Amino acid sequence: MGSSPNSKPKIVRGTAGYVLEDVPHLADYIPDLPTYSNPLQNNPAYSVVKQYFVHVDDSVPQKIIANKDSPRGIHFRRAGPRQKVYFEADDVQAAIVTCGGLCPGLNTVIRELVCALYHMYGVKKVLGINGGYKGFYAHNTISLTPKSVNDIHKRGGTILGSSRGGHDTTKIVDSIQDRGINQVFIIGGDGTQRGADRIFEEIRRRRLKVAVVGIPKTIDNDIPVIDKSFGFDTAVEEAQRAINAAHVEAESGENGIGVVKLMGRYSGFIAMYATLASRDVDCCLIPESPFYLEGPGGLFEFAEKRLKENGHMVIVIAEGAGQELVSESIQSMHKQDASGNKLLQDVGLWISQKIKEYFTKQKTMNINLKYIDPTYMIRAVPSNASDNVYCTLLAQSAVHGAMAGYTGFTSGLVNGRQTYIPFYRIIEGQNKVVITDRMWARLLSSTNQPSFTICKSVTEEKREEETTGEQ
């Protein structure tokens, strides 16, 4: 996507190749804004913290690995409380909205946004927008207080409800303006963050004193720049239950095969990490690594070999894997959901059927195949301990940034540090598994599965040699 057509990236350059990709500030387009002392300096909880306020020049490098000749490279503004704020507590009317699919940790983020606004900065007026973006102009709101959100982190889903699509920039900003909202916290994936960027640009065009803050949400972990998205750790942990069930089923039957489909529309991170964590998986298939079924080095040959060796096997497949193979027989490549995401065929059912057909045709062995799809069970669970901590840090960082007058940014973790990332970097592409990276190599060595891409290349080279020899 790149940067928004309405604005240029805010770049600060320093010595030795230092580049700060800064985030917008309300003072960039509203002159002479008054500032106030941060109320945290009088908060007893923080009185013991040395250097609690973040220095104005603190930044976090995007790439942490360097050598003695490396330039300092791209940095992002470090998140955290500032000594001066641009809002007084009584004047703040905050709004929180959740968009897109469900993800563990949504309620935790909502809870911590409300509690940070209330307990850290004394903000009493916080609105929850019901039902995603369309809730702005459908006038669906609820009042949020620390008491009303106290226990919501123990539940899955989102108390605000969510939806795909429904984004109308003009109507949303009109609603924000009419209600007197001046801080908007938008929780959602890459499509949601694109919408947040358009809302920010319209607010800047109208020169409104409204901070627009994104909190990245994608269970697939496919948002670029950030280390990981909240809910990912929980998803990997919950996926273990499905893989373990598939392993038990496979082990208990003659020539048993357990097939588990996990989330991963375009990125196979959940499948890869769940496979590495499990150690019971024989083959992991992800969208980034093409595979094929028939012929030397194909999945069928590998499955037959593994069954002869062990008597059972487990296959983990991400939902976006092998879609080009499925679509050869099913014409659905161009159908989309309300968010513009391509509608995928159920590759788990498809590959299960193909494996059954192969062994029936071969008549070499009878198999017992069990297919497990835990997708919605994983999405709907509450977040685990590590995700709860992460959600707290994201929410508190978002509040600190909004109060300090920053806007048009996403709160995210980069190299283990909380940062503020401009929207255009978050929406410029998708984070994907790099199959030439060490992590994928670790997986291949763990499962001992073939690298289908290499197998195919070797097979094609042999065919070319045979054809050349015949000539």
UniProtKB/TrEMBL annotation:
Cofactor: Mg(2+)
Pfam families: PFK (PF00365)
Pathway: Carbohydrate degradation; glycolysis; D-glyceraldehyde 3-phosphate and glycerone phosphate from D-glucose: step 3/4
Subcellular location: Cytoplasm
Active site (catalytic residues): 220
Subunit: Homotetramer.
Name this protein carries in UniProt: ATP-dependent 6-phosphofructokinase
Organism of this sequence: Sphenostylis stenocarpa
Lineage: Eukaryota, Viridiplantae, Streptophyta, Embryophyta, Tracheophyta
Recorded name of the encoding gene: PFK
